[in-house]
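Supplementary Note 2. Why include the ligand at all?

Several targets in our set were suspected to adopt different conformations when bound, so apo predictions alone were not considered sufficient. For every target with a known small-molecule partner we therefore ran a joint prediction. The input for GMT is given below.
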Amino acid sequence: MKIGIVCYPTFGGSGVVATELGKGLAKNGHEVHFITYSQPTRLDFFNENLFYHEVNIRSYPLFKYPPYELALASKMVDVVKFEKLDLLHVHYAIPHASAAVMAKQILKSEGIEIPVVTTLHGTDITLVGKDPSYEPVVTFSINQSDGVTAVSEDLKKDTYKHFNITREIKVIPNFIDLEKFQRLRKDHFKTAICPNGEKLIVHTSNFRKVKRVDDVVRIFNEVSKTVPARLLLVGDGPERGHIESLCRELGIYDEVRFLGKLEAVEEVLSVADLFVMPSEKESFGLAALEAMACQVPVISSNAGGIPELNIDGVTGYTSKIGDIEEMTQNALHILSEDNLETFKQNALEHAKQFDIEKILPMYEEFYREVSEAVLSAAQQ
Ligand code: GMT
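The joint prediction is reproduced in token form.
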């Protein structure tokens, strides 16, 4: 098939999923056209089936807010027509789904039928989407898409709860490339970070408030009173300054390293003993899956879809949001010499359920179903 993929090209989870999906589809012989405002971060290799089309936003003194959605819709029309695409797959509802629905209507007026698949990722529903300033448009564009997927059962439930949705939503979870995310031997790195055999705790996120990075620091502070440990914080975002101040206040700044935005996260995860994800909201928790694939057990909140990934008492533990005390006790339990190896193996075993080799065919099958339905409706 010839597939157009629209996503946020930056470091967010939805952009990573969209880019890895496109790369996987291209390897399977599909022609994939990314339509974004800049080159997706993970679109880092050449493949004859991969194409990139940049959305150019013309500004004008009259525009206080340049109309990105219109530029995107126009670009989608252009690419569908001239590359003869079979399907558009947009990731993150705002504003990608509404722009795709507009492009679909424009193309229909010219006699071209283009099936639109929308994937809901999380905050497009649970945080931003349900805000009254966007809700009517999000509801309309979900209902007008030809196929809709959500990354967890919990996100599907939340979408039905907060929006008046009249169509079926299919759950297709996040996935992982187990060849890329595997425990590598990085002993020199571990020795450099933990010279005295300390346990290594890792958190990766975009440092937004919903990630509750201060809980990570407080849990680490408590754990390190019992078990010598180091904390690596990967990523960057609005909360970073506040988190640095908190580390200074707690007197643990020397035990914590801020690594910023890293490309090769799997190298850090390869030497980690524990991953912490105490999020307020998390539709799936791709960062935790990446950790599990590298044999790292997870201490997390029970927010959103996390319990579908982190199995309580097996791959790690889940606790109520903000229950730092329980998360600390669970972290100490996992880190004890008697338990660590079992949790590591369990984490890897469960991660295998989300192998890209298993999940990618679910998207391919869904594309076929949606395309057939659209084409047969058009013929009637
Ligand atoms: O919050 C993020 O990490 C970014 C956000 C995004 O859309 O870019 O991630 C969401 O989508 C990911 C991929 O489907 C999910 O794994 C994350 O759980 C989800 N984040 C939230 O729901 C907060």
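The first helix runs from residue 13 to 27. Residues 206 and 236 are 5 Å apart (CA to CA). Comparable summaries for the other entries are listed in the accompanying table.
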